[in-house]
Amino acid sequence: MNSFIDWISQPWPWYVAGPLIGLTVPALLLLGNKTFGISSSLRHVCAMCVPAGIPFFNYNWKKEMWNLMFVLGVAIGGFLAVQFLANPETIVIAESTKMELSALGITDFSGLMPADIFSFENLFTLKGLLFFVIGGFLVGFGTRYAGGCTSGHAIMGLSNLQWPSLVATIFFMIGGFLMTQVFLEPLMSWVGF
Fold this sequence. Notes:
Blueprint: H1 2-8, H2 14-32, H3 40-49, H4 65-84, H5 95-103, H6 120-123, H7 126-145, H8 150-159, H9 163-190
Helix pairs in contact: 3-4, 8-9
């Protein structure tokens, strides 16, 4: 049993994790004619909790209960992994990345997310407002505007050869590259890093 725990608590290589994620698409389609996506679960929760007669939320959300259970499983699995299966090794980050992040004031690499940004102390600051509140709103708005999130389009949509998912995935990548290569440093200095 200890060898299994040791094996499962190590990071899995991309050539194992990637195909496993990719195989969820045909498994969902073949086993239950279901589509994969995470962001739609927020719509289901809103339809369940706020039956205000809004046409966007007027549908049979009970048919999508499996999706809510999937998201609950992701949350429980994440909690169990962090509490009981955490990799005791230091997270490996390239030295060049550490140097670039250090220049932006990010120096704590001990956890999964940099505590210099992701902490309760930062929540009520300008950078917290920008990163968490405004950034979260933009991600949520963009997800609904694009008709799905990155996992829905890049994993499910591309697997189904959907043209809108290809366009969305291309623009997700362009936005990510622009943010990290062009906008991140000026933005970080503007908010006080």
